Amino acid sequence: MKTIVSIAVVFIFVALAGIAQQQVAVEPQSASETAPKVPYRVVGTMSQLMVDIIFPTSDDIFYIGRKPPSNEAEWGAIQRSALTLAESANLLVMPGRARDQDKWIADARLLLDAGNLAYKAAKAKDYDAIVALNEQLVTACITCHQDYRPNYRRRR
Questions:
Q1: In this structure, are residues 62 and 137 in contact, taking their beta carbons and an 8 Å threshold?
Q2: Is the dihedral of CA 144, 37, 86, 51 positive or negative?
Q3: How does residue 15 score in pLDDT terms, banded at 50, 70 and 90?
Q4: Sign of torsion, CA 32 34 39 43?
Q5: CA dihedral of residues 145, 98, 80, 124 (deg, nearest 10)
Q6: For the segment 110-135, what is each residue's pLDDT rounded down to a tens digit?
Q7: Please, what's the b/e burial string for 79-96 (b: 16 or more CB within 10 A of its CB; e: otherwise)?
Q8: CA angle, 131 as apex, 126 and 132 as ends, to 5°?
Q9: Which of 42, 58, 108, 136 could form a disulfide with 96 if both were Cys (CB 3.0 to 4.6 A apart)?
């Protein structure tokens, strides 16, 4: 089931990239028009991104030790999860989602960097490198959650 969800998420990213490349030429705007026209629109909520994309893909990286990949298909699944995780950082900084242009962007960059390194390690089938990235990924998650989730890690 996880593989199907991962494949679906990757397919969505590829489709969105294809749509973005098929833009028709837009006439130049006058200097007084400051709002840029963008070829995308926000579909999911922040909660949906976290629950449906970021949590499952980060879990694939966090818990790789439970069942280390042993064949091409399993390594491919880890690669897809790592790539999706890295690209999800770009979804977090889209206009309409970015909470600010300072901490939010810096926090998303931590996720992008960790996901990118995990993707490179998965492509190289470097299990030890992925395991070593767990702390960096934990830091990316905790940093953002401490900055933007009220009462994060506070006892009730």
A1: yes
A2: positive
A3: very low
A4: negative
A5: -80
A6: 999 999 999 999 999 999 999 999 99
A7: bbbbbbbbbbbebbbeee
A8: 95
A9: 42
Residue 1: CA atoms inside 13 Å, Cβ hemisphere, count?
2
d(CA 19, CA 43): 15
Cα–Cα dist 31/4, whole Å: 46
- Residue 84's nearest CA partner among 6, 141, 139 is 6
- Whether the CB-CB separation of 129 and 57 falls below 8 Å is answered with no
Reading the block at residue 143, the tokens are 């940093």
Q: Domains (ranges, CATH) in the chain? A: 2-7+45-148 (1.20.120)
Tokens of 85: 């995780």
pLDDT digits 0-9 by tens, 52-86: 999 999 999 999 999 999 999 999 999 999 999 99
Instruction: Indicate the Cα dihedral angle 54, 58, 59, 61, nearest 10°.
Output: 160
